[in-house]
Amino acid sequence: MHGTSTEPDEVTVRARLLGPLELHSGGADRAPTTPKLLQLLAMLLIRPGKTVHVDSLVHELWNDTPPRSVRRTLHTYVHHLRRHLDPDGEGGLLVTSPPGYRLDLDPAMVDVSEFQRLHRLGRELLTGGDDAAAAHAFRTALDLWSGPPLASVHCGPTLAAYTVYLLEHRRNARDLWIEAEIRSGRHREMLGVLRSLTTADPLDETLHAQLIRALCLSGRRSDALASFHWLRARLEDELGVEPCAELRELHRELLSEGNPVR
Asked: 122-141, pLDDT tens digit by residue?
């Protein structure tokens, strides 16, 4: 009904880091466009509800070349960011918290927290043998991503390291999602996904192992063998190495009467 109050949604603050940075409050995206302010906001958002030390902020924003009056400059940036986040001067989202600053924000309101929660849930379900539910949890976690993490932010040393951390977790979630789908019997449905991923990342041995397993489980043993031989030649030509132990074991299984382990 039109008369229903929407006040709870309007005052909720939510942030997105798994893509371009967004901070939604009062029905609007409050993320600034000024590069340094956006970088400062990102530093506060990666530790929501916790104090970020002034020295950490200075290191991120200026690395080894801070301006002469760096504390005053940082204070000015904080002042502008606070006004940008709270134009009415009522929210108090950005708090001075010696020896630094804090975003007074529930970590659960940041998409990274939800991604990590779903990632943990997927792993627990996979360990417990509930493969279909695990696949759903991982897929839901991956759907939170809209692009590279902090895509709109100029990243200094701390934020750059944080994006690497997030990308590694995304890669792990992707690999476990595929594993769960194969275990749940959806190996044929995953062939297109795996073909696309191995084309985009031709030296990723985990993806190739999953593709070979899915092909074999789908009754396409010759295609699975061809995929192994193609990867082995590529690894030898480009890196001068043999396929990993898991792939070599899969190759032995392909040449035997048995099927690869599920």
From this structure: 999 999 999 999 999 999 99
